[in-house]
Amino acid sequence: MDLGRRRGLVVPLWSVLLAVLLLGPALGPGYVLSYDMVWVPDLALRADALGTGSGLPRAVPSDAVVAVLDEVVPGMVLQKLVLLGSLVVGGLGAARLAPRGSLVGALAAVTLWQWNPLVVERLGLGHWPVLLGYAALPWLVGAARRWREEGRVPGVLPVLVVVASLSASAGLATAAVLLVLATRKDPAQVARVAAVALLANAPWLVAGLLHAGAALGDPAGAAVFALADEGALPGPLAALGLGGAWNSEVLPGSRAGLAAWLSTGVLVLLVAVGWRGWWRRLGTREAGGLLVLWWLGWGTAVLTWAAPAAVGAVTAAVPGAGVVRDGARILVLCAPLLVGAASQGVVEARARVARAWPGPVPAVPRLLLAGVLVVWPVTLMPDVVWGLGGTPGGALRAVSYPPSYEQAREAVESAAPGDVLVLPLSSFRAPAWNGGRTVLDPLGRYLGRDHVASDELVVSGTVVAGEDPRVQEARAALAQPDPQGRAAALARAGIGVVVVDRTAPGGEEAGAVEVAGRRLPVADDLVVVEVPGAVARQVPRAWVVATAAGWGGWLVLLVGPLLWAGQRMSHRRQQ
Question: Are 63 and 49 within 8 A, CB to CB?
C-alpha cells in the first residue's frame, strides 16, 4: 500500500480514536451537561435564540441553528455528532497543516490539534461553538489561501465561515483569519472578504447593536475570566501551549504540575526545530499571516492576564467589549501556527536522527521514535482520557433528565400566555442527577417558552453582575409584600408562569416566596404556578425588521453558493 493510501486510512482512524478516548462516556445515551453546554431534547426557536429577547444575544446564532436541526436529528444524537465531529473534522484539517508526504508528521499534527489544554478546557466549560470554530480553522486557512491566490471564492468557504461563527468570540476569530489570510493588495478583495465576515456574523452583530444599552460589562468580570496560571506555570507560558482557562474546575491535574512545564517545553522545542522549514514551505505571505494571528491570539490573552483592570475598564465603557475578556478562548488563533510548525519539527527531528545514526536506522528504533513524536501530548496529559476524568469538576458523562422536567414542559404548554420565570435566581446548578457536575440551569431551555433566568455569575466568591433588565424587574416583583402583589407585578412584566426548582441551592427559600395563581400538577421537586393576567412581551417592530435583515444576510451567505452551484449544474446538463 503506497503512502497516500496509508495516510488516507491511518490518519482518520487515529483522529477518531483520539476523539473517542477524549469523550468516552459522553458518547453514551443521554445529554452531556457541563457549564455552558446545555442541550435538551427539543430546543424551541425562542426570541432569545433569534436575538430579540431581553438579554444579551450570547447564544445567537448557535441556539437557532440547533433549534432548527433538532427538528430533523434528535437533540441527543445531534450533540454527539457535534462533539465527535468537531474533534475529528478538526484533526483531519490539522493533518493538512503538516508537511506533505509525511505520515508521522500528519499523525503528530492530529494529536497536537485534538489533545491540548484548549480542547480539554473548552470541552469542560461546554463551549461547543468555540470547538466548532476551532475545527473549521485549518480548513479555513486552506480555503482563504485559495481565495487569495485564485481570486474566486472556494465553494466550501461560505459554509466553513458560517459553521465557524456560531458564537460571537468564534465569529471574531474567524473574521480575523479571513481578513489576514484571504486579502491581498486589492481594495475590492478586501471589501469582499469583509462582506463575507460581516454576513457570517450578522445575526449576533445586529442583535448586539439592538442590546447596546445593556452590553456594558461588569469590570469584575475581566479579572474573573482573564487568562490564568496553571499551577506553577504562569499564564503567558501556559498560553504558549494553548492553556490558561479561568476555571480551575476544568484544569486537569497534569496541567498543575511538572507535566505542564514539560509539555510546553517540548512544544516550543518542536516549533523551534521546524520553524525555518515551516516558513520556507508556506512562504512569507501565509507564514507571516499565521504569525500575525498567533500574536493577536497570544497577545490578547496575555493582556487579560497582565492588565485585568484596564480590560475591565474597557468592557465597562465599550458595549460588547466583554466578548474578549475570556483570555484563553482567543488562543484558537495560535493553533494553526503551532501545529503546522511543530509537525514540521517532528519531521525534521526524525530526519536529524536518521542522519546522525550510523548506517540505516533499524525498524524498531525508527518506530519507537515515530511513536514518541506522535503520542507525547497524550502521555503528558493522560488524565483526560475517557471523558476528562482527571479534572476537579468530574468526568463528562451523558445523563437523563428527571421525569419532572417533561411534566413541567407539558404543564407550561397548557398554561396561559406569558414568559416563564425560573427560580431561584441563580444561574448555575450542580444537580445530583447530573453527577454533581456544574451546569448552567437547563430548566428554562427545556420548558420551550421564552424565559427569564438569572444571568448573574458568582465565581470564587466574586459576583459578576448580569445585564438582562427583566431579571431586575422580576427581583422587584418578588420583593412585593404579598402573593397578590407579586403576581400582579410579574404579570405586568410579561411573566405568565413561575417555575421553582426546589432541589437547587436556594430553591426551598424561593418556593417559600408565594405567588398568587394556579398551581399546576408536577412532581414535588418542581413547583409550577400559572400567573393570572399576564401580558405577552412585545418586541419592537424595528427590532423584528433589523433582526430579520441580519438573519437574511446570514442565509444568503449559507444558501446562496449552494443555489448558484445548482444552477450551474442544471445549465451544464441542458447544454
Answer: yes
DSSP β-ladder status, 526-530 and 518-520: antiparallel
**CA 309: distance to chain centroid?**
25
Instruction: State the pairing for strand pair 462-464/457-459.
Output: antiparallel
Q: Give the CA distances from residue 124 to residues 131, 249, 437, in Å, rounded to whole numbers and listed in that order.
A: 11, 8, 10
pLDDT digits (tens, 9 = 90+) for 113-127: 999 999 999 999 999
Q: What is the DSSP string of 2-65?
A: -HHHHHHHHHHHHHHHHHHHHHGGGGSSSEE-BBTB---SS----HHHHT-SSS--TTTTHHHH
Strand 428-429 to 495-501 pairing = unpaired
Q: Are 48 and 57 in contact (CB under 8 A)?
A: yes
pTM of the shown model: 0.95
CB 342 within 8 A of CB 271: yes
Buried b vs exposed e over 100-121: b needs ≥16 C-beta within 10 Å? eebbbbbbbbbbbbbbbbbbbb
The 10s digit of each residue's pLDDT in 376-403 is 999 999 999 999 999 998 899 999 999 9
Cα–Cα distance measured from residue 207 to residue 217, given in angstroms and rounded to the nearest whole number: 16
CA neighbor of 314 nearest in space, from 300, 297, 293: 300
Residue 353, judged by CB atoms within 10 A of its CB (0-12, 13-18, 19+), counts as middle
| Helix then strand then coil, % of the chain, to nearest 5 | 65, 5, 30
Stretch 90-95: mean pLDDT? 98
CA dist 559 and 463 (Å) reads 43
Tell whether the model's pLDDT for residue 361 goes beyond 90.
Answer: no
**Long-range contacts of the stretch 297-301 (C-beta < 8 A, 24+):** 297/173, 297/330, 297/331, 297/332, 297/333, 297/334, 298/236, 298/239, 298/240, 298/331, 298/334, 300/324, 300/327, 300/330, 301/227, 301/235, 301/239, 301/244, 301/327, 301/328, 301/330, 301/331
- Is the confidence at residue 131, as pLDDT, over 80? yes
Task: Name, in order, each residue with C-beta under 8 angstroms of 352's C-beta and a sequence gap of 6 or more.
Answer: 273
Distance CA 407, CA 250 (A): 33
How far is residue 209 from each of residues 53, 152, 175, measured CA to CA in Å? 13, 31, 18
Do 139 and 365 contact (CB within 8 A), yes or no?
no
Q: How many CB atoms lie within 10 A of CB 357?
A: 13
Q: Is 529 strand, coil or helix?
A: strand
Give residue for cell 509525511: 102
